[in-house]
């Protein structure tokens, strides 16, 4: 059993085998193998407590149902189930997804990272640039001329319905 | 405002590029208007997906502009690792030259994964240039018809020395053309092949480890021989769609000493095909994991499709996991019991009863003939039977009891013979 501590000082107890899905944590555990129990506490900074909950839920699910199940047809059905579950899991607001990406990046969990990135790209896919700007709250610091003339003419085929 | 974090802008560049790489190129380019940082960020995305779907006006001209901007004008410091091309309703003369230029440029940028969706009309002129991209690791091509396949005639050479994954679909292409491709690909490991049934086919390769063979059947021609000389094969997926297309005396030639896992999916099998199915099972008899799915179609009376009376049963000395779904009417159930007696190493078993359709195709079917003979399970029905850990004491006993069940049909047949 190892303990994770989030940035707002909440503790999460996780089985080692489960937490091993994070490559960062696995390395830390490997480094500290054979030491006292106090060392089995891992401080996870820059992540608030809501995210570890989600990450641990994700771990547990993947721990119980590893992706590469030996059985041929069985794995197909299970993979389908897992897909559905993941779709539900990633169906959250964009801030949570953002934090999940950061957490997955720093903890090095490739499948979670890819899944969250894909979900974000799905959100962006069917929206116009203005809408994306609104969702992502990115401040638009282009000058008026740039926005009206320069950038649209650079890639006219994306913006305009007709070519001049 | 402290918790009002800018989404996307707090993420590091490489993470944003990962997100952009999931997007079709047209959408990724649109992010250039978000802010200064994003203006040229999309150019670094290593995966390019060109599709007319997300263009404001999906016509030739805008597709051309897109290809020009995203690929031809790409800075040499940004490699393209994966390229996905999708064409829809584009006039041929515009396309093939242009695609050729895009491929040449992509090759110079180190292209590794290429997928082409929907056949461009003149694929035949593109195939030589596709098969000369030496950095390619995976390739997925649209359907190749007899017209296109003429380039596989003698003289076809390929320089894809690193290609490991290949997915091909053929439509009415002569078998010698197909067999010519494989010797040219020295590191191929994973092959997915979709073909129409033909007289004979041989697939020689020293390196293939995974084969997925999908056969689209017809009543004629049927396979007279299928030669798979694949000594490194580990996983085999054999699927037939439509009428079963192996003739009764068609064996699979070839030895697969490393074969571990086999999936066989058969569509529309009837009584005369039993011998062919048996031969199929004989040729893979030393497999460790077998998954067999059979559909019986069109016939009003249940037929034994696994076994024929008087023929030898396949022996599965190394089989550990077996997964069968078919209609377990009394004949098939008896057959499966006989087969299981020949599997000494079995660890897990999964039997699923597939109820055939009672539609116009098979008028005169009576439900009672097709009733499942599986033992009643924990859910109180006879639709499936699972057995796990068969090599352990208590389960083994239970399983032996299951095996000792009556094989009424075969005994009756024997009695009649005597």
From TrEMBL, chain A:
Residues 1-60 form the SKP1 component POZ domain. SMART domains: Skp1. Gene3D superfamilies: Potassium Channel Kv1.1, Chain A. Pathway: Protein modification; protein ubiquitination. It comes from the Eukaryota. GO terms for biological process: jasmonic acid mediated signaling pathway; protein ubiquitination; ubiquitin-dependent protein catabolic process. Keywords: Ubl conjugation pathway. Residues 111-157 form the SKP1 component dimerisation domain. Part of a SCF (SKP1-cullin-F-box) protein ligase complex. Belongs to the SKP1 family. Involved in ubiquitination and subsequent proteasomal degradation of target proteins. Together with CUL1, RBX1 and a F-box protein, it forms a SCF E3 ubiquitin ligase complex. The functional specificity of this complex depends on the type of F-box protein. In the SCF complex, it serves as an adapter that links the F-box protein to CUL1. This is SKP1-like protein.
UniProtKB/TrEMBL annotation, chain B:
Gene3D superfamilies: 1.20.1280.50, Ribonuclease Inhibitor (3.80.10.10). It holds the Pfam family LRR_At1g61320_AtMIF1. It comes from the Eukaryota. SUPFAM superfamilies: F-box domain, RNI-like. Residues 11-51 form the F-box domain. InterPro entries: F-box-like_dom_sf (IPR036047), F-box_AtFBL13-like (IPR053781), F-box_dom (IPR001810), FBL13/AtMIF1-like (IPR050232), LRR_At1g61320_AtMIF1 (IPR055357), LRR_dom_sf (IPR032675). This is F-box domain-containing protein.
């Amino acid at each position: 059993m190892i303990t994770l501590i989030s940035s707002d000082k909440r503790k999460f107890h996780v089985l080692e085998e489960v937490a091993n899905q994070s490559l960062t944590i696995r390395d830390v555990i490997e480094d500290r193998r054979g030491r006292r129990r106090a060392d089995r506490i891992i401080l996870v900074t820059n992540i608030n407590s809501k995210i570890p909950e989600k990450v641990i839920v994700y771990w547990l699910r993947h721990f119980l149902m590893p992706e590469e199940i030996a059985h041929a047809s069985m794995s197909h059905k299970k993979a389908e189930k897992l897909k559905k579950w993941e779709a539900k899991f990633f169906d959250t607001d964009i801030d949570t997804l953002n934090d999940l990406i950061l957490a997955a990046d720093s903890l090095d969990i490739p499948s979670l990272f890819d899944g969250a990135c894909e979900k974000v790209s799905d959100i962006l896919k069917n929206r116009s640039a203005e809408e994306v700007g609104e969702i992502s709250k990115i401040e638009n610091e282009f000058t008026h001329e740039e926005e009206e003339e320069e950038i649209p003419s650079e890639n006219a085929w994306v913006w305009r319905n007709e070519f001049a | 405002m402290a918790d009002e974090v800018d989404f996307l802008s707090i993420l590091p560049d490489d993470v944003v590029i990962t997100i952009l790489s999931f997007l079709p190129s047209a959408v990724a380019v649109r992010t250039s208007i978000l802010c200064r940082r994003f203006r040229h960020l999309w150019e670094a995305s290593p995966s390019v997906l060109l599709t007319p779907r997300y263009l404001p006006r999906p016509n030739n001209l805008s597709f051309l502009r897109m290809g020009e901007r995203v690929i031809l004008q790409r800075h040499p410091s940004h490699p393209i690792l994966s390229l996905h091309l999708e064409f829809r309703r584009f006039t041929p003369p515009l396309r093939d030259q242009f695609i050729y230029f895009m491929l040449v440029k992509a090759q110079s940028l180190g292209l590794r994964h290429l997928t082409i969706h929907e056949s461009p009309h003149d694929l035949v002129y593109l195939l030589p240039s596709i098969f000369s991209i030496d950095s390619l690791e995976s390739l997925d091509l649209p359907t190749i018809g007899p017209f296109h396949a003429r380039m596989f005639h003698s003289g076809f050479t390929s320089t894809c020395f690193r290609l490991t994954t290949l997915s091909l679909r053929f439509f009415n292409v002569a078998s010698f053309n197909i067999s010519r491709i494989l010797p040219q690909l020295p590191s191929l490991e994973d092959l997915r092949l979709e073909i129409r049934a033909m007289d004979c086919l041989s697939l020689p390769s020293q390196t293939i480890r995974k084969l997925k063979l999908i056969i689209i059947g017809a009543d004629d021609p049927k396979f007279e021989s299928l030669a798979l000389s694949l000594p490194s094969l580990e996983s085999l997926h054999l699927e037939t769609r439509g009428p079963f297309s192996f003739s009764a005396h068609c064996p699979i030639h070839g030895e697969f000493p490393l074969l571990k896992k086999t999936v066989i999916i058969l569509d529309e099998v009837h009584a005369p095909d039993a011998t062919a199915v048996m031969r199929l099972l004989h040729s893979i008899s030393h497999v460790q994991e077998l998954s067999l799915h059979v559909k019986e179609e069109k016939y009003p009376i249940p037929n034994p499709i696994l076994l024929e009376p008087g023929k030898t049963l396949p022996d599965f000395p190394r089989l550990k996991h077996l997964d069968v779904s078919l209609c377990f009417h009394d004949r098939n159930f008896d057959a499966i019991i006989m087969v299981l007696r020949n599997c000494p190493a079995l660890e897990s078993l999964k039997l699923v009863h597939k109820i055939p359709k009672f539609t116009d195709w098979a008028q005169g079917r009576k439900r009672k003939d097709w009733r499942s003979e599986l033992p009643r399970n924990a859910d109180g029905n006879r639709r499936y039977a699972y057995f796990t850990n068969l090599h352990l004491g208590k389960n083994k006993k239970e399983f032996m009891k299951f095996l000792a069940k009556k094989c009424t049909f075969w005994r009756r047949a024997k009695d009649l013979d005597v």
